[in-house]
Amino acid sequence: MSSVGKYLPEIVDNFQAKRKTVAWWRRFKQNRVERVQEILDYYKGNEQFKSEMAYLKTYGADYFPYDWARNKNVWKIRCGGKFNNPQRERYVIRNGKKLFLALTSYSQLSFEQHPKSPHAYFSTEFYVEPTDCFVDIGAAEGMISLDIIDKAERCILIECNEKWHHSLRKTFEPYRDKVQIVSKYVSDKNDENNITLDELLKDVKNPVVLKIDVEGMEDQVLAGAQEVLRRKDTKVAICTYHKPGDDIRFKEYFEKLGYWTEMSEGYMTMLNGEEPPFFRKAMLRAKKK
Predict the structure, then answer these.
(1) Which tens digits make up the pLDDT trace of 91-126?
(2) What's the rounded Cα separation, in Å, for the pair 102 and 63?
């Protein structure tokens, strides 16, 4: 059998996956027509979001209403998987590494970390260094940890949702000597299902970088990290779009603790039934001065 014949099922499967991803994105934009109109009506006459409104009016629903986000070309993304594998384990190639998840999910996640994205965790002023322990709170598929796996001394991935556990183990099998996966909620208490950062990191001597994306439970994470946040070498990237006003509140919180802070560039559009404001700052980065 020729090499083409050998891999033909996988080639066809990948083509179909990419076609389905394109179709999904088109349906997403079409199904959000009423939501976009609600947003445009709410901000009518508001000059602050003039460019974001113009984008939505022209191109329809988009979490990131900026020109850089228009090029959602999944055909350039390398992906694969075992065609005859009953578990249908899919992966994409990201920076030369296998990240186990479906292309549909990856297409959006990859845009979240564009350098100009409101959801980007890192910047020219905020990054992981070789001696750091990176703590991925709300790791999900583990893409962020995979991005920095060669930069940090160690990584701790915390994900309570069991649906991600198998793919996380597959993705980080080559790095098992420096990766720990914790299957608990990060909270303000310690019990069978919950753990605080103060407890988890009590024996970690490295500088720590906390990435916090926990769907609105950020306050509980911070409440259980009082000792960690007092350290002189702690850095934090925390989501601020899950609840209205979190951007202002978390900025004040960290600055009172003596942290330098910066907000990510631009705004995210709230398209999934959230209350106003519909354009929200998405990421706060903080480190000790």
Answers:
(1) 999 999 999 998 888 988 998 999 999 999 999 999
(2) 20
User: CA dihedral defined by 225, 147, 98, 64, rounded to 10 degrees?
Assistant: 90
Q: If you search the block for the tokens 């890192």, which residue do you land on?
A: 122
Pairing mode, strands 279-280 and 208-212: unpaired
The CA-atom distances, in angstroms, between 124 and each of 98, 111, 128, 141, 174 are 26, 18, 11, 25, 28
Helical axes 103-112 vs 3-31, angle rounded to 10°: 60
Give the pLDDT confidence of 169-187 residue by residue, as tens digits: 999 999 999 999 999 999 9
How confident is residue 152, by pLDDT bands cut at 50, 70 and 90? Answer: very high
Asked whether the predicted pLDDT for residue 81 surpasses 50, the reply is yes
What's the average model confidence in pLDDT over 137-165?
Answer: 97
Q: What is the mean pLDDT of residues 78-88?
A: 65
User: Do the bridges between strand 268-269 and strand 208-212 make them parallel or antiparallel, or are there none, so unpaired?
Assistant: unpaired
Please say whether the beta carbons of 103 and 18 come within 8 A.
yes
> Per the structure block, which two tokens stand in for 215?
């769907």
Q: How far apart, in Å, are the Cα atoms of 113 and each of 1, 69, 122, 201, 264? A: 41, 11, 8, 26, 11
